[in-house]
Amino acid sequence: MMSLFGRMLLGTLLICIPVLASSGWDWRTRVSVAVKDQPLETICIILEKQYGIHFSYSKNVVDLSPLVTVNIHNRPLKKALEDIFEPFDIHFARIGDQIVLTFKKHPTQTISGYVQDYTTGEKLIGATVYSPVQRVGTTTNQFGFFSLTLPRDTISLLVSYIGYKPGRLPVRKSQTDPVIVPLQSQNSLPEVVILTDTLRQQQEQAPLSKLNMSQADMKAMPRLLGEADMMRAIGALPGVSGGLEGGGGLNVRGGSPDQNLVLLDGTPIFSVSHLFGIFSVFNPDIVKSADFYKGAFPARYGGRLSSVVDIALKDGDMQQYHGEAAIGLIAAKAMVEGPIKKGKTSFVVSGRRSHLDALLNDLKLNGEAEEPDNKAYVYFYDANLKVNHIFSEKDRLYLSGYVGQDMLKVTYREGRKGDTAGTSTYYADSRSRFVWGNYTGTLRWNHVFSPKLFANITSTYSQYHFSTEYNYDYNPLNTADTSIAYGKYYSSITDIVGRADFEYRPKPNHTIKFGAGAITHIFNPGVSLFEDAGGGQPALDTTYNDGASTGQEILLYAEDEWKASQSLWINAGVHASSFLVDGRFYHSVQPRLGARYLLPHKWVVKASYTHMTQYLHLLTNSTINSPTDLWVPSTGKVQPMFSRQGSVGIAKSSRHRMYTMSLELYYKTMDHVIEYNEPVSPFSGAGTHWDELVAIGKGRSYGGEIMLEKKKGTTRGWIGYTLAWSNRTFPTVNGGKPFPYKYDRRHDIEAVLTQRLGKRWELSATWEFTTGLPLTLPTASFEGIGDASPFDPPGKDPIIDHIGDRNKYRTSSMHRLDISATYSKKKKLWTKSWTFSLYNAYNQRNPYSYYMVTDTEKQERYLAEVSILPILPSVTYAIKF
User: Fold this and answer.
1) Pairwise pLDDT comparison (96 vs 801), residue with the higher score
2) With CB atoms counted within 10 Å of each terminal CB, which end of the chain scores lower, N or C?
3) Where exactly are the structural domains of the chain?
4) β-strand 747-757 against 778-783: which pairing, if any?
């Protein structure tokens, strides 16, 4: 019989046997594991299957998704786990028969500074600052500033930017002052593909309805008429069109040009095109970057309904002088930048001037042969200046200015002066001069309050003006009943802005932006002077509407950019504003929300909702789009416009982002939009009681946009298609029935292609097609009773038209091909290039305007079409030094 001691020993052994069986490993157990580009989780699975080592962890706390390559052979378990987990700050400990994984807790510090070009000191917008160990990062703001909070034992950061060599930033302990991170350009090096999975995710997380264009992106755009124009590139995107042929401006998702907020270094620009829309007012040589939003507007932007174009100018080289100059058949330009005091103060100045005067001197005003004296004389010019001064590592000052102007002179003659052959009974001589343009000035101060808090204080001035003068001399050859008329008209809008913007980054995945501002709007909607003398009648001298009105706008905003998880990003905010004009007070609270979610296999789902309010209105005739359009404020009769827009989208990227595809659907409603009750001339609508001539109603636009893009390689480009509807409804217009809006385009196709041929040649082409625009036409006409207009030939009775439904008809479909070829050759000290281009390559006569013509012989009237932009060849020679 077994003794008591023996029975106790046997029981103890039986109890311990399972423990020993399940604990067949210790820290000295030698293990082998080999994986290539596999998640950390795979290593845990291998160790569990081969050695019975169980791992316990929470997926919400410990991320085992990073890809690693490991080759460990016959090493102690503890040493092997240190090599595997230490780079990712993962702590491991044995509890019972399993290993528990947690993140190490570290004291943190905030690293802040600026990313800039190594050679010039130019700040780089949107550069990525990233910690590979913590797998967190951030991007620089529009001043090149970044802030990133990390564990105190972080050794270095990876810094990258498109077109530059990636760099590393060593992290010093207790770093408090802003640091400078210089990156070297790699324009001459092959493309570098960044394989880091998180960086790819950050790139794929572009907000819905947003496009960012760097200077490198703009240089890769087609160079039509010798320039890679940024606004032309934006106009080639789905959901965006360039308005009427020769009209300029942008029409975004059924909106009008006045509903676009265009900022030049934070200063609003009211007219964005030169020369019938051929050029934009932004010289590409001085533009550094641009952000374009057609939806999902961040809360920091306000005052417009349809889009935002935020343009940043170059700061100027802090170290040495550089310049560019070019001359072509249409325009010439030059740019110079350099230090005023090296490392402290820099400048950049640019200028352009067209010389189309001779090329368009014989412009056909009616599409028919004219007398030699029937001429059009047109030109534009613009100039930019910017000065950048560094007071300290925490304080910088920017001063910039812009001036630009267009002028058009038209001379038109009917009949022949002194005709004695009896072929004409009168002569009429008219001369008109149109001038319009922008003036702006900007003063900005940047201050770093702390590594986490950045401030930008801005004061701006912006004015848009339009004026016209005309002379009309009518003289019947057989009578003394002459008419000599002179007229002058002037209008303008001026904005004076002061605002403060702050950016606070408490954590790498959290950015809070907030600010406030005040805007003084000064409206001068039209001062007119008319004089009429001749025929023995007393002279007529009339001046009216000689006055201006002022509106005061106050704004507040706050927005929060939050990366809620590895897959979910949210931007939520609110923009609040008020408007005081002529004793009337309006206010608005505008919520904004945008989100995107990363799906497997590089699919991204995005959605947004925005509420926008606009206190300014643009009075425009429904049949033309010209500089004569009038800016006016909201009044007691005309309330501010506001819109609500919802959009959803999905995007897909191929491996290494070679190809991308995106699809967006949107629905937008607009309230308190205005329209003339009946078509009027821009001058007769300029009275102080303009708000009695307009109807107030609602608008609606909706549609879908798809875009396929190739982003890398020697062949790049995109093709976009838009299917859209846009309509308006006014109680007193068109019988209260909805009608297509002026910019309603059912189908729109845009294709852009660039092709590199070797190191020196680049070919590019853009083709666009759009269905016709809505048009209102008379359905019947008859001769009235009474005197004809003094501007009509004698013997004519006035013709009265019966106008049918508003915008019932459509113009012809419009399409155009633009092509260019650029040859570049680098010399020792400078680079030269030749650009050969064709605007409207196959000479498509797209309509600019329509008018009714009466054929007295056939006793009929017909619709005539005017085209003003035929094929325009151009050769441009440029140098860069």
Assistant:
1) 96
2) N
3) 20-103, 108-204, 217-880
4) unpaired
